[in-house]
Design a protein that fits this description.
By secondary structure, this protein is an alpha/beta fold. Helices cover 39% and strands 26% of the residues.
Length: 299
């Protein structure tokens, strides 16, 4: 049985003729669109698009499929419009996942949702490591990562710089970066801090490794080496100071993630739209800078 979610991506990509156009309409990253199209082509065992420098062009098989699914898409779109819920009447449970670190960035978002949807029962799942969670376990999630989960629809909300931090006493005694002792934390990112550190430094001395960002923060604050932290955490901890921000930094994305099946959930769609329309306001007071593609939506 064909996944209608993949067909929605097919229709959008056919309409726009580019991955970027489809990604913008669907509120996801280019890689998600590409993965969905490839999955549909594999399921049907046919090639639907010609990949060209100028964009994606339908093949003969793609044109035939487009004619058929367009009829269905029109009816489904009409049904969705008909059953858009009144925000003040929306009730039920909304499960939100967030990493346990970075809670300072979530308060305004949750407050806004409570104001717009007063009858919703919001349940928040906190977790330091997302490796044992799947997107079926929650309605929407917020994560800071270099690589969002493969099974998710991921929308980049903002970005933040990571810098090197150590205790003031520790850094005072460091003569050069070769003397750094590293505390690294490992999650599900392809580019975790162990990977990043080894890209910046040759043969780094890693003294502690963990799967928890909070552990790394606590260890370096107690004088145990250095690690990469967000400015929000590093600059607000009086025990810490940064090291050469201009030279040593990398970005992580702040993503809204959801399971592909939740696209048809009216509550999730309404909540996601509220977040996207208010993203600049919601990220104020944090170190995240709203993604340029979302700033246009906010206006």
């Amino acid at each position: 049985m064909l996944d209608w979610g993949n067909l929605e991506y097919f229709i959008s990509c056919a309409n726009h003729g580019t991955l970027s156009g489809c990604a913008k309409e669907m509120g996801v990253n280019h890689s998600t669109v590409s993965r969905k199209i490839e999955k549909l082509e594999k399921e049907l065992a046919i090639k639907l698009f010609e990949r060209r420098n100028s964009g994606y062009a339908l093949t003969i098989h793609g044109k035939d499929l487009y004619k058929e699914v367009q009829k269905i898409d029109f009816k489904i779109s009409a049904l969705k419009e008909r059953f858009i819920p009144n925000p003040e009447l929306m009730d039920g449970k909304l499960v939100i996942y967030k990493q346990s670190e970075g809670g300072k960035n979530m308060t305004d978002i949750i407050t806004k949702l409570r104001k717009n949807y007063p009858k919703l029962n919001i349940h928040i799942m906190n977790h330091a490591d997302s490796s044992d969670l799947t997107t079926e376990m929650y309605d929407i999630g917020f994560i800071g990562t270099t690589s969002p989960p493969e099974d998710s629809i991921a929308t980049l909300l903002g970005e933040i710089d990571m810098h090197i931090y150590g205790s003031k006493e520790y850094l005072k005694n460091i003569k050069n970066t070769d003397d750094f002792e590293w505390v690294t934390y490992k999650r599900t990112d392809a580019e975790d801090t162990d990977f990043i550190v080894r890209n910046f430094f040759t043969n780094p001395k890693i003294i502690i490794s963990s799967n928890s960002y909070q552990d790394a923060h606590a260890f370096v604050a107690s004088g145990n080496g250095v690690t990469f932290l967000t400015d929000l955490d590093g600059d607000n901890d009086p025990r810490l100071e940064s090291y050469d921000k201009d030279k040593y930094s990398f970005k992580i994305g702040f993503y809204l993630i959801q399971h592909e099946l939740s696209r048809s959930n009216p509550i999730v769609r309404a909540v996601k739209q509220t977040i996207l329309e208010n993203i600049e306001e919601l990220l104020q007071g944090s170190n995240f800078i709203a993604s340029s593609s979302l700033k246009k939506i906010a206006r």
